[in-house]
Amino acid sequence: MQLVVGKIGRAHGIKGDVSVEVRTDEPELRLGPGAVLLTDPASAGPLTVESGKVHSGRLLLRFAGVKDRNDAEALRGTMLIAEVDPDEVPDDPEEYYDHQLIGLDVVLTDGTPVGELTEVIHLPYQDLLTVTKADGTEVLVPFVSRIVPTVDLENQRAVIDPPAGLIEPIEGDEQPSGKRASGERASGARGSAEQGGDGQDGDGQASGERDGGDAA
């Protein structure tokens, strides 16, 4: 299975380093030295990670064969893709890969159907689950343990306990539906009600750490 684990940003310095928008909750595994990554567009890769470091809160990578700023700038916008065993699961039982979550039936705590989980969106402060309702409208559900108390992979469902107005507008309150927040990263980390995940977007790892930790 192929999962997006990062997106190359601007060049940094003159020796070929690039900034990377991380979309995995396991950057040390997916984007560590020696990792071989496919790319989109395919013509840019495969790329082998030569070294990496964190600078001012950003991940900087250097790829084998990328020797100067011009080479680095040519990679800008390239998506980084890892090959992941579809049967692989995170070590932490409270973490989930995005592909494990997408397609789950979403129900309320009393069993009332809500819709289908169709996407995990990774934002800097927390992850959001896109739930598509039967009428085609979408709602965004914060992936925190207070609102998503149960993820039942065996029965292919996620149980949610949403606050008033999240799923159905409160009477007299006009609330737009289907609005999609910007950002990606399925690996949606499930945080506490006060603190979300690390906001890294989608290794396809939607790791949902109950106490807020992080990313296919």
* Spatial strand arrangement across the major sheet: 1-2-5-4-3-6
Q: Please, how many helices?
A: 3
Residue ranges: pLDDT <50 for 5 or more in a row? 175-189, 192-202, 207-216
Give the structural class: mainly beta
Kindly state the percentage of residues in helix: under 10%
Distance between the termini: 9 Å
Spatial shape: elongated
What's the total number of strands? 12
Order of helices and strands: EEHEEEHEHEEEEEE
Give a short account of the largest sheet. 6 strands, antiparallel, barrel
Query: Roughly how many Å is the radius of gyration?
Result: 18 Å
Beta-strand percent range: 25-35%
Mean pLDDT: 80
Notable characteristics:
single chain; 216 residues; mainly beta; 6-stranded antiparallel beta barrel; 6-stranded mixed β-sheet; 12 strands; 6% helix; elongated
What does this structure look like?
- The chain has 216 residues and is mostly beta strands.
- The chain has helices at residues 27-30, 69-74, 98-101, and strands at residues 2-12, 17-22, 36-40, 47-55, 58-63, 79-83, 105-108, 113-122, 127-132, 138-142, 150-152, 157-160.
- It has a six-stranded antiparallel beta barrel with strand order 1-2-5-4-3-6.
- Strand 7 and strand 8 form a beta hairpin.
- The protein is elongated and about 60 Å long.
- The protein starts with a strand and ends in a 56-residue tail after the last strand.
- 41% of the residues are buried.
